[in-house]
Design a protein that fits this description.
Distance between the termini: 27 Å
Largest sheet: 7 strands, antiparallel
Shape: globular
CATH superfamily of the largest domain: Aminohydrolase, N-terminal nucleophile (Ntn) domain
Structural class: alpha+beta
Number of strands: 28
Oligomer: single chain
CATH topology of the largest domain: Glutamine Phosphoribosylpyrophosphate, subunit 1, domain 1
Strand order of the largest sheet: 3-2-4-1-10-9-11
Radius of gyration: 23 Å
Number of domains: 2
Bound molecules: iron/sulfur cluster
Length: 477
């Protein structure tokens, strides 16, 4: 999971990219990077840490240009090497290219081997470099950008939302299934393409629409050209964007995430009603769900755990004891709201079960009588291969345990996960338009050793023509 942004504007873009990345910080905290094109060359700056730690005013001042891309990276096992920081840059002939990507290729290894055999040299272990190599190899052979993206969509398997600058032009494309989000917004003097609409909001812009699955967008001083390169029989939007990843104030593929979570909260009550003194969130992830549960049940919303918002990723936890201590520092129980009370505790998901168990222990030690756990996601049964760093099956508590066994393990009085049917209804799109791989173990793309229901992808006829892109008026976008 990462956050990406691309901006083309009449003025300098480095500060706008910085604000947009700030808005997308929840999508990645390992590193941040910006690349801009100043008319002659690409200027870049990348560093480990949060956006605010990586950039300062002089650095942003040096990133000159009216066009640029930015990236925030999520920490994934074994990939936190400095060379994996994005955007990636490529220069050849007269082309200056910077590329940033969110997603994960499942055929990364085979493509990398193929391109290595062709003589390509890789400097990172990131699949973004494979995307860039497939693309630039085609461009070097004389193809147009449209043809090169067409080839990418034929060769790449998995999820990819991409923003890219080539000299002074901003491009973006999204895999034919639209697994990871990507949207376009209009600012006062330019355009922004970003993982979530919150980045558009951060610049005071207006969300225009989502980039369509399989679509290539070209944004330049002349306007916007949209080219539908590939069309799938149905998309496979990541269902976890609504449950956990996206910010509650984001609009993802047409749905406001906050409203989806609130509806899920109501449905949690309908599916598993309980008499209790109060309903409380695990802050902050459970808040919107809890509001829905309180509305549906009439049980008062009372916060029982207070979150320390200043506990950053640099908090030192040298051993297990310190890690246990950490939950107390991060979440402080409000004793008078817990003593002798029966509480409905609402969270977005249970992954390993360790955090839920610690929180429940904490609440019990502060006097809670009953803790009825309600979860906004169905049980997570399988890993994600499409861009989310999830534990292995063995580590996922629900992969081999029934709900009642999970309940015992986390020591809750009762436990209920939302059903997939209710979740899909809350999102408001057909079940078949969503990826539910980690919930069902059935993935929308072919993955070795896993069950899949791959979508049929059609390309814009067999003889793909260049320059299919048509410049469109803003209102026709
Ligand atoms: S497997 Fe789960 S987390 Fe991964 S893309 Fe699909 S729904 Fe999202």
């Amino acid at each position: 999971m990462c956050g990406i942004v691309g901006i083309l504007d009449a003025g300098e873009v480095s500060f706008s990219l910085y604000y947009a990345l700030y808005a997308l910080q929840h999508r990645g905290q390992e590193s941040a990077g910006i690349a801009t094109f100043d008319g002659a060359t690409i200027n870049k700056y990348r560093g480990e840490g949060l956006v605010a730690e990586v950039f300062d005013t002089p650095t942003l001042g040096r990133l000159k240009g009216h066009c640029g891309v930015g990236h925030v990276r999520y920490p994934t096992t074994g990939t936190n090497r400095p060379e994996n920081m994005q955007p990636f840059l490529f220069e050849f002939q007269d082309l200056h290219i910077a590329i940033a990507h969110n997603g994960n290729l499942v055929n990364y290894t085979e493509l990398r081997e193929e391109y290595e055999q062709r003589g390509q040299i890789f400097w990172s272990s990131s699949d973004t470099e494979v995307i860039a190599k497939v693309f630039t190899d085609e461009i070097r052979g004389g193809s147009s950008v449209e043809d090169a993206v067409h080839l990418c969509m034929r060769r790449l398997r998995g999820s990819y939302s991409v923003v890219m600058i080539i000299n002074g032009v901003l491009y973006s494309f999204r895999d034919p299934l639209g697994i990871k989000p990507l949207c376009i917004g209009k600012t006062r003097t330019g355009y922004i393409i970003a993982s979530e609409s919150v980045a558009v909001d951060a610049l005071g812009g207006t969300l225009v629409r989502d980039v369509r699955p399989g679509e290539l967008m070209r944004v330049s001083e002349e306007g916007i050209a949209c080219t539908q390169i590939a069309v799938a029989n149905c998309p496979a939007h990541c269902i976890f964007e609504y449950i956990y990843f996206s910010r509650a104030d984001a609009v993802v593929d047409g749905a406001l995430v906050y409203d989806v979570r609130r509806k899920i909260g109501r449905k949690l009550y309908e599916e598993a009603p309980v008499n209790a003194d109060s309903v409380a969130p695990v802050p902050d992830s459970g808040t919107a769900y809890t509001i829905g549960y309180a509305e549906g049940s009439g049980i008062p919303f009372v916060e029982c755990l207070m979150k320390n918002r200043y506990m950053g990723r640099t908090f030192i936890m040298p051993n297990q004891k310190a890690r246990e201590q950490a939950v107390r520092i991060k979440l402080n129980p409000v004793r008078s709201h817990l003593e002798g009370k029966s509480i409905v505790l609402v969270d977005d998901s249970i992954v390993r079960g360790t955090t839920s168990r610690r929180i429940i222990e904490l609440m019990r030690s502060s006097g809670a009588r009953e803790i009825h756990m309600r979860i906004g996601s169905p049980a997570i049964k399988a890993p994600c291969y499409l861009g989310v760093d999830m534990p292995t099956r063995e580590e996922l508590i629900a992969s081999n345990k029934a709900e009642n066994e999970v309940r015992k393990s986390i020591t809750a009085t009762t436990l209920h996960h939302i059903s997939i049917e209710a979740l899909v209804e809350a999102i408001g799109m057909p079940h078949g338009h969503l990826c539910t791989g980690c919930l069902t173990g059935c993935y929308p793309v072919q993955i070795e050793g896993e069950i899949d229901t791959p979508r049929a992808v059609n390309f814009v006829d067999g003889s793909f023509q260049t320059n299919l892109g048509t410049f469109v008026e803003e209102e026709d976008l």
